[in-house]
Structures are given as C-alpha cells and as structure tokens.
Specification:
Strand content: 5-15%
Largest sheet: 2 strands, parallel
Number of domains: 1
Strand order of the largest sheet: 1-2
Helix content: 25-40%
C-alpha cells in the first residue's frame, strides 16, 4: 500500500495586522503538524489581506528572511 500524505486546510479570518495573521498562521501550522499533516493550505492573501498598504511600508528586508521553525515541541491539539 502507498504512503498517505495528510493535508490540512485552514479557514481563518485575516482582517487583522500582519503580525497577528502571521502568529495565527504559525499556530495553525504547528497544530496541523502535531496531528500529522505535512502540508497545510491557507486562504489566498491570508497574511496581508487584499488591502495591504501596511505591507508595502515594511519593505522587502523584513519579510525576505527564510522562515525557521520555532524551537520546542508543537502545541497539543485544542490548546489554542
């Protein structure tokens, strides 16, 4: 039998500041990983929304760094 790829889909409200959206996105990634997902899908524009003058003001340097996973064990499902 072939291997199974578990995929999680997240529906989230993104009309918040980008830092909040990023924090929630990382939270959902950790929860999905704790449940065994290797792929997590999010709505388009889930970090910036469709109106993003705030993101333009940040400049490319802040968001062009490679992402590093947080240290420590993932949270337990249902903890957030």
């Amino acid at each position: 039998m072939g291997r199974t790829l578990q995929v999680s889909c997240v529906q989230m409200h993104w009309a918040k500041p980008m830092e909040h959206n990023l924090e929630r996105t990382l939270h959902h990634i950790r929860l999905a990983a704790a449940e065994g997902s290797r792929v997590v899908l999010f709505p388009e524009m889930s970090l910036t929304g469709y109106y993003f003058p705030y993101a333009i003001q940040l400049g490319p340097r802040r968001w062009s760094r490679p992402w590093r996973p947080p240290a420590g064990p993932p949270p337990r499902p249902g903890s957030g």
